Amino acid sequence: MIIIDGNNLLCAVQESAAGSEGIGDIGMCRIIGRYVRAVGEKGQVVFDGGGPPDKSAFDNIEGVEVFFAGLGGDADGVIEDKIKADTSGPRLTVVSSDRRLRKAARAKRAGAIKSEVFWQSVQKRLNREAPRKEPPAKREGLSESETERWLEMFGLED
Q1: pTM over 0.85
Q2: I want to staple 92 with a disulfide (CB 3.0 to 4.6 A). Which of 45, 49, 81, 110 is the partner?
Q3: What is the pLDDT of residues 50-62, one digit of tens each?
């Protein structure tokens, strides 16, 4: 499980030089969803405050649950509660540049990573070169003229 300080990561995303300045909270959560699926994890993103009035865009992001701390609430308190309640120990990773949250994670023997470093690993993982597609000829087979040429070469023509 990866628990992410949403506003903290969003700031890191928007400050990164990788052309990420146009990414908003929903876009970031979708990217995180792709990442957690790629690494075989589940993720939780916690944002400060009550969030937008219509939160439906956050509902169907595969692999990621999105939480809002509530009006006047902050994500740090919610994340600290999640860390305290977690029983997975080393299988938990907390993403935040907030020292207090990283310290709380380490106290539970969980992993802790700064937002900037995490975003770099997300980008690196998702930007890996896609596997090369096999040539169409492999599925389509040889043309008639190629087949005749091979048959002739091996002395198998009639």
Answers
A1: no
A2: 110
A3: 988 899 999 889 9
Helix (H) or strand (E) holding 4: strand 2-5
Q: Where are the domains of the chain?
A: 2-153
Helices of type H across 20-127? 25-39, 75-85, 99-107, 115-126
Q: What is the pLDDT of residue 131?
A: 63
Which residue is associated with the tokens 């949250």?
Answer: 101
Q: Largest Cα–Cα distance in the chain?
A: 86
Q: Which CATH architecture has domain 2-153?
A: 3-Layer(aba) Sandwich (3.40)
Nearest-CA neighbor of 79 among 51, 116, 104?
104
- Rounded Cα–Cα distance for residues 145 and 133 (Å): 25
